[in-house]
Amino acid sequence: MAPHLTPQELDLKQWHGKDKLTPVQVYTKLTARRARHHVAAPDLTNIRRVLRGETYSQGIVETRGRKKILSRRQVRSMNTKRKLLIKKAKGEHEVRWKDVIKETCGVICSASTAKRGFGEAGLDVKWRRAREKPHKDVDVTNERLEICSQWQSLPANHFLKKVDLIIDSKKWPIPTTKQARRYLKMQRLRGHLRMASEGLNPDFVKPSPRKHHKNPGGYVDLCAGICGDQVVLWEYLDGSWGGEPAASLYEGPVLSALRKHRGNKRRYTVLQDNDPHGYKSKLAHTAREENHIITMNLQRYSPDLNPLDFGIWQAVQQRMDKQGLNGKESKEAFKARLRRPALRLPKDVARQIALHLPKRIKAVVEAVGKDISLD
């Protein structure tokens, strides 16, 4: 009895299709090939059945193993129901896998099966903690949408070339001990690659900022500013923040940085944060008018549109963490050490952060003023 056709011999089907050989001609070639290896040739009838696709079927659906419970179509329906349930919940209660399965017509499966089906469909849906963001009411979202609708038509390099300075203030913690530095690093941790049973392992636990708050050693108020693709302003402030310090800031360090890096101009354009007690106070407004400074004002609850908030602070902090300081450190030494990586921040880094602002403005318009997925 002649042996079955090998995978290489099944490729001879192209002689019948592409080269348009008759079944007899294909049979003749196959017989000659097998004769050279002293192997018995199959019958001509078997060759005809192969060429008609009646045997040796290739590309058929696999019928072995466990059958899939969820089809792609059912997974898409479940994903649509998931979004609808979350929208109806309005953030007031949790939506679990059992709720999604119950609401989807024609689906009966377990939570693990649903999760596995989503993963096979390329949907990375799993239980995650809700992210904490400031609540934005209708007025806030409308304000964000209005200003971003105006700004989205600006050139891509507008905030690099036309805006003379982008400023923001921050209360920076000063860790004076090694334990304080470790505590602050643990607070910035967002998650681990772990199993569910490893949740209480000391290596996977971080202290609660509310229940286990620790004083790092002190805080310092500072104002920073970027001009084009570099950080040009890093000023530490004395006392509490308010209208008078903001006015002094505009009359002193801000004006000096503008004249140094933009030269003498009729007027300067500054992008500033929404700060009613500082930047938008009457004293600060008077100081800007006297020094011919006009402003582009960010709306309320919009740190996602300030390059210092969404990029510069983190870039400086990452460079501080890499220094690996041990032991105690005075406040003045920390302030001097903090200033160096800030003012030496590579231009490529600052430029990429500034150029990301137009993308965020467009994302706010697409989100109708709500939170954007770029954070």
TrEMBL record:
**Record-level Gene Ontology MF annotations:** nucleic acid binding
UniProt xrefs under InterPro entries: RNaseH_sf
- Superkingdom assignment: Eukaryota
Name of the molecule in the record: Transposase
